[in-house]
Design goal:
The structure is a homodimer of 616-residue chains. By secondary structure, chain A is mainly alpha-helical. Chain A folds into 2 domains: 40-412 and 428-458, Amino acid/polyamine transporter I (Up-down Bundle), CATH 1.20.1740.10; 483-613, Rossmann fold (3-Layer(aba) Sandwich), CATH 3.40.50. Chain A has 21 helices and 5 strands. A 5-stranded parallel β-sheet of chain A has the order 3-2-1-4-5, sandwiched between helices. In chain A, α21 links the parallel β4 (569-578) and β5 (604-613). The interface between A and B is large, with 91 and 91 residues.
């Protein structure tokens, strides 16, 4: 559907791909790991920090011990999820996101709740990740702080363009930084441990640790745990995107999932441990990772490498959402629960409408929250864990119902997964409720309602349009039909004549119709018409309120010219086509408006006869 | 053209008016004075302050003497202009704005330069006045300072609504505050003089007067004078709007102009004199007028009355622009130099498109400049004086050329006016050039260029459309015409059948055309078509790049079905009409897109057959 300015589009988006080229756009394990897991891996950059934000203001120095406990719990939860999702990949070779698994096994509403929760979370992922990416940049270069919203928006736009170019190219484009991040962070962790345990460096916190103002409570600990659970967002992406892998896609997907768990264990565990060793203090000027690396590397080149790769991977984390949401929307669109446009592949064979919508919504969030992740965090993660729970519960029910090989073992794993993620979802929901999670509890039912309305609409439209095979085209009896053709006139010019000429080819029962909004102009027209002297009747109606469409509709409805219930009145309208794009601004778009109104009548056909004006 | 939601519109805008009701919407002298002059009268609220902004930082206490000199010069200039414009009103009973006078006597380009300058200045007037109005409000209630942009935008929106309601009602709505302002300021002036000269009050400046850092220079004085000239903006409105007055409109307009001059003399002169007596110091927290009234009234009720009426009249000053610009644009549109829509009267008989555009542009300016008048001021007034000069020069040339009664005397007055306003324009241009006036020097030629392009476009379109009276409708020979009718098909449903039925009424040469973008869907369609078993050929074209319009256009162009140069190919398209407004979002708007592309071909007629889906 590309027209004009194709060159620029080609340069920006890459050339159009044929439908047959779909197969070659698949991921290997090596490139699949970074593109499917950058979200999960990158979240360590803020998950640890979010835990400390909860603990440090209350229990001061004690925070670091409880942070470690919370991190261990989160890593355990992650391994549980990894095992559960391996089973999902086995059971759903064509992609088993929560939406599909829940819909399949628990029914439509459960599926839609999972779908809605994920949709919201994907949008938040892009907003949060790109804001956090900007925070990493401004931690290294504080003079950029005033421009953080602009920087964040630019990052999102780059993501949109990269993703519009297509899956495989984006994985290469986005894969390298992920590997760079993993390597540089692992190097920092190893060097940080050596520095303390072998060289004997005594950590000197960059910021003062506040005095404890209270003591640890179960609620506080759960809140810290809930905040850290953001680290697990994005795991879903692998099982949702099974069809994106090279054949054998299930095997490749499972390998990527296992590798992902390993990397998160090393990176998240390592950074949490370093944070306790080096006593990083969360604040709004410098990120926790920046504080740690600053102590380890003394602001030498490695400090900047860490900041740069952190920024990059955070931005690319948003990319997981760009890989996940358009696919999810396409699934839902195919089932009729989302507008059909989301199921249509764009010029580069990706679901371009989903990509563009995701970019737009996340930019809105960034602008509204002025580029601060902190306000968005409480909304985040609830949705992910709701969808985790529904997906695991769906798998559990599937094993129990279908039985099959080793079904008890499989049901146990998914059942445990469902229980754990359910408890986590409840914990997150309760501890973060007043801070913003309530928004999700309103938004999800609302989105589910909209999705059901959309499905209803499509179903009704399909029913109304369904053609019984015995309803054949009508026999035409050219003599009995009155077939009025109305040609509206404003000025007697070539464009009108062209419309009139066409009208005469389809009927000999023509009425010229003029709506008078200016007496002088009408007089002039009638004089000219008489002078023109052709034997076709003209009818003039005065329009005191200067509306053109009103009198026309009234005339069509009026008894003497009314068509029978099966007859169609044809209105032939000249349309002025200007070749210059700005030309259309200069003409009253009356004919367009008239058409829109007339289209709402059943027994009408509107003929548009273009008259093209070529300008030099 | 009002459809649906008419009740809300009626409530907001007043009911639609018939074209015949135009006459009753005219102004008397009593209501004409406030509506035509609020700009000129209100500018005293900032004109004096702008003079002090230039002088005080340099020459300190000495400023007040030179402020008085500048004010006297400005008042003299105003009287000169009043005399000049009285002659314009006499000569141009149907409204003699600078655009018309300059175009009439000096040629099109001069007219357009005046028109462009005025257009820019009218937009600035609205932005500057509403910002200044907000400043008067925040001077009285400092806690509102953080919301100044929002307040300013709200004020503009109210102005737009008021003006959309129509001329006469807006004059009453807007007239009373102007009189209140005049009364309360005159009271303040009288009481301020009594307090000093009779009661013996020794003025105690609210803010400290800065030490002089330099001495007066001619350039500095001219700059101060130039800044004060903003007081004269808006005088133009009266002569531009002669037709808005009740009959005899010329006499009434001249009376209003004389009264206007008197009021400006009293109010501007009085406030300037008070500022020198009470030593007001310009700053960003409190306006000069606020400082004066604070000393005179000790923050009693009268202080707040002054602030409130100042705020009101400043906002209403923007109203002068709302009375002036739409009329100016309508004049230019009638001559073809602006889009025709500006010459169309809205439901309340005013030029609603001009009103809406003015509101939109000034809101943009307010947002961009964050509600601070100070940055906009240098752009202001240059345009007004350029148009003054052109208008006076035009009048001068008119008298010299036409001669007539007492022409020497008249030519002398307008010639003197032209010279004085020209000198002023040069002074403003030079002294404010680097502060922003340069923008105007770029913008005016650009706008003039656009206006000329528009005129060229309309002229070319009219020439191409002109119908020679001997070119009659074609004789139709029903037998010789091939008249192909193409009916595109996507799904075999009722909507397609309706289109097909219509197609059969206009031709027996029908081709069903299908663009295949999905092999499975196409197979299904063809099976169904064979099963449907009607004797009409179907043609299928594969579209590898998933474009529907490309193969269709190619097919129309293809040799075997090509129409002769005079034949027309008809494409009949079913259009899915959904009664719910949001329904359209849910359907691929492919048919709309196809129509837009097909319309660019000469030998085509597009028939739209609506199929209406009523939802419960």
């Amino acid at each position: 559907m590309s027209l004009g300015s194709g060159k620029f589009l080609n340069r920006l988006m890459g050339k159009s791909l044929k439908t047959e080229e779909l197969k070659s756009e698949k991921l290997s394990v090596f490139w699949g790991l970074p593109i499917m897991s950058s979200d999960a891996i990158s979240s360590v950059a803020y998950a640890g920090e979010e835990i400390l934000w909860v603990l440090v203001p209350v229990i001061g120095l004690m925070s670091y011990r409880y942070m470690l406990y919370a991190s261990i719990l989160i890593v355990l939860l992650m391994f549980m999820l990894t095992f559960s999702y391996r089973q999902t990949i086995d059971a759903y070779p064509s992609g088993g996101g929560s939406y599909i698994v829940a819909k399949d096994n628990l029914g439509t509403t459960a599926g839609l709740v999972a779908g809605a929760s994920l949709t919201i979370d994907y949008v938040l992922t892009v907003a949060v990740s790109s804001c956090a990416g900007t925070a990493a940049i401004t931690s290294a270069v504080p003079s950029l702080l005033p421009y953080k919203v602009g920087i964040t928006l630019l990052l999102i736009v780059l993501l949109v363009i990269g993703n519009l170019r297509g899956v495989r190219e984006s994985s290469k484009l986005f894969g390298i930084p992920t590997y760079l991040f993993i390597a540089s962070v692992l190097f920092m962790i190893v060097w940080g441990l050596i520095k303390v345990y072998f060289i004997g460096y005594k950590p000197a916190p960059v910021f003062k640790i506040p005095e404890a103002s209270g003591s640890i409570t179960i609620f506080l600990f759960l809140k810290a745990f809930a905040s850290g659970c953001t680290a697990l967002t994005g795991i879903e992406a692998v099982s949702n995107g099974v069809p994106n892998f090279k054949e054998p896609s299930q095997k490749h997907a499972k390998m990527v999932l296992a590798l992902l768990a390993l990397v998160v264990l090393l990176v998240f565990g390592g950074i949490s441990y370093l944070a306790t060793l080096y006593h990083a203090v969360p604040n709004s000027q410098e990120t926790v990772v920046a504080q740690i690396s600053q102590q380890i590397f003394n602001k030498n080149i490695m400090f900047y490498v860490i900041q740069a790769t952190t920024a990059l991977i955070l931005v690319l984390a948003g990319n997981t959402a760009f890989a996940g949401l358009p696919q999810l929307l396409a699934f839902m669109a195919k089932d009729g629960y989302a507008p059909r446009q989301f199921a249509k592949r764009g010029r580069r064979l990706n679901y371009s409408n989903g990509i563009i919508m995701l970019g737009f919504l996340s930019c809105m969030l960034v602008v509204i929250f002025k580029g601060s992740t902190h306000y968005l965090m409480p909304l985040y993660a609830v949705g992910v864990f709701v969808s985790f729970t529904l997906s695991q519960a769906g798998m559990f029910k599937r094993w129990v119902k279908n039985k099959g090989f080793a079904w008890r073992h499989k049901a146990f794993i998914n059942g445990l997964g469902a229980s754990m993620t359910f408890v986590t979802a409840v914990v997150i929901g309760i501890t973060k409720f007043i801070h913003g999670a309530w928004v999700v509890f309103i938004l999800v039912p609302f989105v589910v309602y909209i999705m059901k309305r959309i499905e209803l609409h499509y179903a009704e439209a399909a029913r109304e349009l369904k053609l019984p095979m015995d309803q054949k085209p009508k026999k035409i009896d050219f003599t009995s039909q009155k077939r009025y053709v109305i040609v509206p006139i404003d000025t007697l010019n070539k464009s009108f004549l062209k419309a009139l000429n066409y009208a005469r080819t389809i009927s000999d029962n023509i009425i010229i119709f003029h709506v008078s909004i200016d007496d002088d102009a009408t007089k002039k027209l009638l004089n000219k018409w008489n002078q023109y002297n052709v034997d076709i009747p003209i009818i003039v109606k005065k329009s005191p309120y200067r509306s053109i469409v009103g009198p026309l509709v009234k005339f069509i409805e009026s008894e003497e010219y009314a068509a029978g219930p099966d007859d169609t009145v044809t209105v032939v309208m000249p349309q002025f086509v200007v070749t210059r794009w700005w030309g259309n601004i200069l003409h009253n778009q009356t004919s367009l408006f008239i058409k829109t109104v007339l289209l709402k009548r059943r027994n009408i056909a509107i003929v548009t006869v273009p008259y093209i004006i070529n300008e030099r």
